[in-house]
Design brief:
The structure is a single chain. The chain has 298 residues and is α+β, with helices and mostly antiparallel strands. Helices cover 15% and strands 38% of the residues. The longest helix is centred in the N-terminal third of the chain and has 15 residues. It is globular and about 50 Å long. The C terminus is likely disordered.
């Protein structure tokens, strides 16, 4: 038995999308296999074994999507399973890819996504997808922080890195540095990600401010356990933390992860919106007890 999938990415944050009607006996095991960066899904001739790097092998997660087109606007229930087999409540770029997938199936330019972090409205205009990210929380319970913490972490040292803790659907520890390129993220992030003060773990996001008020971004993602080319919830976390610390006054800022540009708005009431491109890459099939195989671009 095989499972059909499609591959999408948002600013190079890439996802395998599987219709929830497909029978996947073990979603965690499936995600671990297809997301593997050496042996996971990929276009024929790409990756470490094919000698070409024009398309990535593996993915940053699997989105299981249940489409409910009878609603107006149409809805999709989104479950994100990460490369380590765990689930995440929210993913900004993943949600934008999910909205694009649903829009292509229904012809709608507005889609409602039911995520574990709440229902989110998305607007689709070609390859640009804008999605509501909900309420941003700095509260100790909202992040969450350890049970002994009753107050937020704002510009406080955690495992040698000065961070501000914020939940943008998932927890982030945001650190503002002079230049994100100068930090050995793979060395400094794991200790912060696993710090006792973050009982659920935390994504670790670095930001450096450009002269025009935009930000460069790098994020070490919980569940991926490594750096990704883009992180939507991390981009929102940067703008939210920057506003909290008085680093910017405007509600909107551009954020530049390695994979491209994201546009973020965080209102005075800490309600957030994320916008950027979402694109379909290819489709294929894998075994239900995968060893994934390379496929040819559709």
């Amino acid at each position: 038995m095989s499972i059909s999938y499609e591959k999408y990415h948002g600013t190079s944050n890439d996802f395998v999308i599987v219709d929830a009607d497909e029978y996947v006996p073990d979603r965690g095991a499936f995600a671990r296999e297809v997301c593997d960066r050496r042996d996971g899904v990929g276009v024929s001739g790409s990756g470490a074994t094919g000698g070409s790097t024009d398309e990535s092998v593996g993915a940053d997660g699997v989105l299981f999507l249940a489409l409910e087109p009878r609603f107006s606007p149409p809805r999709a229930v989104m479950t994100l399973v990460q490369p380590d087999g765990s689930t995440a409540k929210m993913c900004g770029n993943g949600a934008r890819c999910a909205a694009k997938w649903a829009a292509e199936r229904t012809g709608a330019d507005t889609v409602m996504l039911d995520t574990q972090a709440g229902t989110r409205r998305a607007e689709i205009d070609g390859e640009r997808v804008t999605i509501e990210m909900g309420h941003v929380s700095f509260d100790a319970r909202g992040v969450p922080l350890g049970a002994e913490r009753e107050y937020p972490i704002v510009a406080e040292e955690v495992e040698g890195l000065e961070v501000t803790a914020v939940n943008t659907g998932v927890p982030h520890a945001v650190a503002f540095v002079d230049d994100v390129a100068d930090v050995d993220l793979e060395s400094v992030a794991p200790a912060v990600r696993n710090a006792d003060v973050f009982p659920d773990g935390a994504n670790v996001t670095l930001a450096s401010r450009r002269e025009d008020g935009s930000f460069d971004q790098r994020t070490y993602e919980r569940g991926v356990e490594g750096e990704t080319q883009s992180c939507g919830t991390g981009a929102v976390a940067i703008v939210a933390a920057a506003r909290r610390l008085g680093r910017i006054e405007r509600p909107t800022a551009a954020v530049f992860p390695p994979g491209g540009r994201l546009d973020v708005t965080v209102t005075d009431e800490n309600e957030a919106v994320l916008a950027g491109p979402a694109e379909r890459e290819f489709e294929g099939e894998v075994s239900s007890t995968p060893k994934p195989r390379r496929v040819t671009r559709a």
